[in-house]
Amino acid sequence: MKHFLKYSFVLIAGFLIASCKPHVSLSGATIPVEAKTISVGFFTNNTSLGAPSLSQRFTEKLRDVVSQQTNLALVRQDGDLQFEGYIADYNVAPVAIQTNDQASMNRLTISVKVVYFNKFEQAKNFEQTFTRFADYKSSESISAKEPELVQEIYRQITEDIFNRAFNDW
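Structure (tokenized):
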């Protein structure tokens, strides 16, 4: 009887493990095992401000992130997992006012609208706007600081997008 219970337990545990849907996990990311490709569409700049290169730089940054942190093949379009969207806002505003009514700090804020489609798990699909900012001294010009600020903002936004898509954040 002992052996029967022992083997029954092992058999039931084996069935339970076999019935679980496997996922590939890299860097903490949960990706459907069926997924083999990922596409990142070109993110257009729908703002009236900012450098013309904003779109290209963001698209490349997101492509780099998904290429480096997953084992999926990057394809031009119709991937098993897909990202699309546009840069929705680019804004510079004062954030810290000195006593003489002049700003001591300015803030660059960028928002990116993202649509994510997962061919295998439609419940993971989303449409969301991701916003991040970086501050800089008002004595510095935005044109001089922009490359550095945009790089940091894009790093944060792409991390947020990746976590939302693959880590259920």
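The CA atoms of residues 34 and 120 lie 7 Å apart. Strands lie at 23-26, 29-32, 37-40, 44-45, 73-75, 81-97, 103-118, 126-137.
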